[in-house]
Amino acid sequence: MSKPNPIQELRARADAFWQVRTEQERKLLRIGGIVVGLGLFYGLLIDPALTGRAALHKSLPQLHQQAAEMQAMAREAQALQSQNTIAPTPMTRDNLNTSLAARGLNPQSLNVTGEYAKLQFTGVQYAGVVAWLDAIRIESRIAVVDASFTAQDAPGVVNASLTLRQGAR
Question: Which pTM was predicted?
């Protein structure tokens, strides 16, 4: 004997349920089923599409404006890129001494030859040297070619040997 199929069993129960109903109950169940089906169709398919379309229609002018602003900024960036940049002041002994004095740094020795400079510091604050290097990097396009730092007994104090070079970015 074979086991009854669950789908056939469910179908038989539904047929039995349907057969015991009167014609008026069947009509009301059909109308209710159609209403529930239409409600699900609208709620799952139609309403999300209409809501999304309205939201997109509402945000479209703002997106067009943002796109126009970005295009204008891109054109401006391209125009600025083609302009000549202002050359930094040449690296001289006097310029380096002035910027060092402005930061309160006093090198033990400072030698400038062409586009290279060699500096020696003894007992200087590490943070002050790093801040000065960052400032001259930005202002004068001077880069560190070689650096050697030796920590001292006092916290934050170092001996430093720096080789700098000025060049275009």
Answer: 0.51
The crossing angle, in degrees rounded to 10, of helices 93-102 and 126-140 is: 130
Identity of the residue numbered 145: V
Q: Is the dihedral of CA 110, 111, 112, 116 positive or negative?
A: negative
- 29-68 in b/e form (b: 16+ CB < 10 A) is eeeeeeeeeeeeeeeeeeeeeeeeeeeeeeeeeeeeeeee
CB 159 within 8 A of CB 123: yes
Closest residue by Cα to residue 144 from 114, 107, 108, 119: 119
What string of pLDDT tens digits covers the 169 residues of the chain? Answer: 567 788 999 999 989 998 999 999 999 999 999 999 999 999 999 999 999 999 999 999 999 999 999 999 999 988 887 776 777 778 889 989 999 999 999 999 999 988 899 999 999 999 999 999 999 988 888 999 999 999 999 999 999 999 999 875 4
